[in-house]
Amino acid sequence: MDSAQVWAPDEADGFKLGRIVDIGGETVTVLLNGTSQTITAPYRCVHTAEEDSNKDVDDNCALIYLNEATLFNNIKVRYNKDKIYTYVANILIAVNPYYEIPSLYSMDAIKRYQGRSLGVLPPHVFAIADKAFRDMKVLKQSQSVIVSGESGAGKTESTKYILRYLCESWGSHAGPIERRILEANPVLEAFGNAKTMRNNNSSRFGKFIEIHFNNKCNVVGGFISHYLLEKSRICGQTKGERNYHIFYQLCAGAPHELRQKLRITNPDDFHYLRHGCTQYFCSSNSDKQLNSNHKSREHREKGPLRDPVIDDIKDFSDLDRALKLMGLSDEERFNIYVVVATVLHLGNVTFEECPDDTRGGSQVAATSEPSLKAAAGLMGVDPEELRQSLLSRVMQTSKGGHKGTVYMVPLKAYEAHNARDALAKAMYAKLFDFIVQRINQSIPFSSSSHYIGVLDIAGFEYFQVNSFEQFCINYCNEKLQQFFNERILKEEQALYEREGLRVKKIEYVDNQDCIDLLEAKGTGIFDLLDEESKLPRSSHTHFTAVLHSTHQKHFRLAVPRKSKLRDHREIRDDEGFLVRHFAGAVCYETAKFLEKNNDALHASLEGLVLETKNKFLRSLFGVGSQGSSPTKGKLSFISVGSKFRSQLQELMTKLEQTGTHFVRCIKPNLKMVDHLFEGGQILSQLKCSGMTSVLELMQQGYPSRAPFADLYNMYKCYLPPELARLDPRLFCKALFKALGLNENDFRFGLTKVFFRPGKFAEFDQIMKSDPDNLAQLVRKVQKWLLASRWKKAQWCALAVIKLKNKIIYRRENLVMIQKTVKMHLVRKKYRPRYQGIMRLKAILKQVQHMSQLLAQLKDGQQSKLEVQALEAKINTAIKRIKEGSLTADAINKEHTALMASVTAQTSLLQQRLQKQKLAEEQERIRRMQEEMEQAQRKKAEEEQRRREEEEHRQMRIQMEAARKAEEKARELEDAKLARSLQEKLVVEQKEEMLRNQQLEQESRDHELALRLAQENNSVVDDVITPVLPVKSQTKNKDGKYDLSKWKYSELRDVINTSCDLELLASCREEFHRRLKVYHAWKSKNAKKSGRDTSHERVPSLLRNGVAASSHTAGGGDADTRQRYFRIPFRKDGTSSGLWLAHFDGQYIARQMELHVGKPPVLLLAGRDDMQMCELKLEETGLTRKRGAEILEYEFDAEWNKHGGAPYLPLSTRQK
Fold first, then answer.
1. Region labeled Actin-binding — which residues (predicted)?
2. Lesser CB count within 10 Å: N end or C end of the chain?
3. β strands within 847-911, DSSP E
4. Helix (H, G, I), strand (E, B), or coil: what is residue 709?
């Protein structure tokens, strides 16, 4: 088999290296290197490997083979060398190292990347930030950097490094602006980040940070927009996770005086903290400073948590200093801490059923009275008013009785707990809004021309229990993935088409159907959830049932029992739903969907905080409050989902109006430790991020471009007058020629010039706008134009010389023309006389010949005198013609008379000679008979030879007639079936595309479920989603043999040895079908630089004929005729020769390649199958090529001449 190295898929390691040892109809078997283990996988999952699998490159586009396996291996090799950044064209892939790499983000690194284009220095997040800045500066357009990836992949850290680069590079003269922008990060992380199972510093909200620049490209301000804070985390966390960092920073780092005022102890004393992880993040030094009373029991037993960037004690000091830098006074900072402490104390207020209340109300537990008083004191309200607001809600009648009557409706214990949690979440959310607002106010802002925005939002999430927060986050990621597809794939290909670059179209999975399922008007999940929330008696089970009934047959939606994870299949159909996202299937539990989608408070609680004595708390709810009037009859409803959708739409509008740059963050392992590369889950992240589709596009694409007019206008003011008059396109051409750029690295469109991937250095050399560089480029252009014009002048001089020589040549040939015309006129005039003389001279020669006859006569004196008289008459006639005394008619009459005389005289002489020769005739006859007998023998031999040639000619005529008859019959059949076949082909293509998408989705679902099972020690069961059947896999019920499980070598052995003709035919059919699939896979995985023709098995004109004959292929397998063909064959582009083939029935038996100056190539079936033509005779189209078929003796002559082995036809084998 083929000895080339390939990558085979592996669930644990992603891909493993091996070589192909067997090929099947739909799968291929790979033997792994260094082991006896084999992997059987579909062709689409096996990829060609690089010659050196340990080589790494900065840009994956520089690899010879561009596929997901080589991308994965390059990232793995670089990760093992501590190279965490890799390019895919202009997209950066960043792998989280989980430790601090020395000098990677130092000031020297920042200076090193300033003004340097992509590809000049090793990949780095600073290079992306610098490119965004230079694009903004050159293109005069705002830019966005989208940092995406799973939780724990390093998005937040990448965002901080981008902001640091922009502020420290171009914000040093802007006073405190850049400092305040950078100091906003610890504040936002304290109030918006938390420890999860997958990330110690997970952002539980999304943010879009804008750095604004003036027309001189100096930093003049900033602005932060935030999205979807995870409020449910405030009231509870799963085991091993923490609440927001601020709660632990306050417990660990607050000074003694502040702790006394806020009554802060340790996390074990607070209900909102004790159910999760209660350990602090501390370094060894800070842990020693921590008072033992401030530590939780878990912290004392297990010790502190370790993280290189998080320290709760130190971070509180940094937070307080950052708030002070933002302009918050001591009182304002204290008020912020008061609200945080209030949330903790409010969580300690618990409720129990009140036995004395006849209406089923509840009461505050006796053990919670101190917490109630502490919370009320911090809030600035009366404890009894707080108690009453938590235990009841206000209702105002709109019908019946006295209109407008207010009633106090008591709450059950679980309703009181929900009201408490709603108040705590509302207070914290309002506080977070206030902090973001104050950060924006603290950043000085002046006139802005453009901005660079950095988007950091939670990545795709999937847990054991997924609720409304995960649903919104994954909806956001669906929209971002669609934007990525539109911007990178769809818009890019549309631009190539408009500019006429003729780049091959790339297919990708469109997730529009999933987005429609989520946000469609009226029927989308968000709208159905809002409608359910507005019902008088809403329930999550009714919402789930309506959802499933509305989208019964939607591919993206399924019931929980269809999940691959066993734990999810235990969820009832009316308590959850499964969505097949672009990254994999996620099962959502709807138990708290309605509660989390409502952002409104009970009227009694809202009224309480609006009347508090705490001015700060009152201002939080008073500014921008969602209506302050009590609702009538039921709880007010403010949709969180609708608010998030509108915010997301504003964000998408911003992104669409800016130039975009992508940073794809990758999480290397689930344990969050350094130098551990878990291949399976990393490969899943690469597939989900769309990198494989980008590879296919970038292999043929042009990721960098610039309009002709922009380049021309950039240099116009520096150009001398003679260059300023140039057309922009001509100027760009002159510029590129002057720079000496490789013409294969760029291409001119209609309005823009495009550059190949990895050629950013050349592109950036042009785009630099410093005066010295521009002046140097102008000089180069002038030099090139001067050289170009000098070459044109030389060409013109040569053209003039050529014209001069042409004129001289024509003048000399005019004389020849004149001579020829004169000759024609003279010939026309004197031709009759000349021809008359020539005819008389011919008669005269006959007369002279008669003199020779006279010499044979024994008595010829009288005949001699008659001949002399006739000769004298002829001479006299010739003399008269020369003198010109005879006309043309007279000449003809004279010639006729003389001719008659000569004929009569000749006849007389012949009669006399006849008698004389009678005696001699007998002897001559005898000799003639002998000669005739000899001639007859030669003629018989010649006749035999001609007969054989005639038979061969008739056989060729019959072959040609048969070919024409077959072609005519085929044309008639094609005319009948063309329309039906075309319709069938369209349907099959649609089915195949849908099947591939379903298989890809099935693969992603399986990978996602496998990763989740590894995290939670659960079990993955394969629940196969029904997909369209593959017609090639459908077996004929009447078939005698099932060969689908036979090995390739077994098939070949049967073909070489078996005498069972039926088994032989089946094996040949399966054998050649596998060969075609294998060679099609090899062709698809050919080198990106072009197809290697040195190993062609069949001429290209036969390979091109496969598609044309595919609808008729498959017939005639029972044909046992031996047919022979010969066609020209150009193998490597330089040498030409002949390709000869012997077909035994429909399959090739012998094959020859004859090239001048090269040894012949003789291939025999059963021995050299991998190098021979794998196509059926009908598929090659040879029978339709005129003159291609030859006779058996012609093929055998060449075969035997070059020492070919004998061949026994299959039909002659004896059982």
1. 648-670
2. C
3. none
4. helix
Residue identified by tokens 């000496």 is 740
> Strands 659-666, 143-148: parallel, antiparallel or unpaired by DSSP?
parallel
Tell me if 1143 is assigned to some domain: yes
Distance CA 973, CA 474 (A): 54
Q: Do both 791 and 850 map to the same domain?
A: no
Whether 1004 maps to a domain, the answer reads: no
Count of the separate structural domains present in the chain: 5
Residues of the chain with pLDDT under 70: 1-2, 170-176, 178, 358, 396-405, 623-636, 693, 696-700, 703-705, 715, 718-719, 739-740, 757-774, 859-860, 1021-1040, 1086-1097, 1100-1118, 1131-1135, 1213-1215
- Domain at 743, CATH number: 1.20.5.4820
Q: Are 1130 and 1181 members of one domain?
A: yes
DSSP alpha helix (H) spans, 623-707 = 640-656, 679-688, 691-700
Sheet holding 38-42, edge to edge: 38-42, 27-32, 14-23, 5-10, 47-48
Please enumerate in sequence order all residues whose Cβ is within 8 A of that of 132, keeping only pairs 6 or more positions apart, or say none.
Answer: 143, 144, 145, 452, 659, 661
Smallest Cα–Cα separation from 1176: which of 1071, 1059, 1030?
Answer: 1071
**Per-residue confidence (pLDDT) for residue 345, from 0 to 100:** 95
149 is in an annotated binding site: yes
Residue 553 is assigned to a structural domain of this protein: yes
Q: What share of the chain is helix, strand, coil (3-state, %, to 5)?
A: 55, 15, 30
How far is Cα 1047 from Cα 191, in angstroms, rounded to an integer? Answer: 62
Residue 503 lies in a domain: yes
- Is 151 annotated to bind a ligand? Reply is yes
Structure-token match 């909200």, residue found: 205
* Domain region containing 842: 829-915
If asked whether residues 787 and 854 sit together in one domain, one would say: no
Which amino acid does the sequence have at 568? H
pTM score > 0.85 for this model? no
Residue 152 counted as an annotated binding residue: yes
Task: Provide the pLDDT for residue 1087.
Answer: 66
- 899 and 852 in one domain? yes
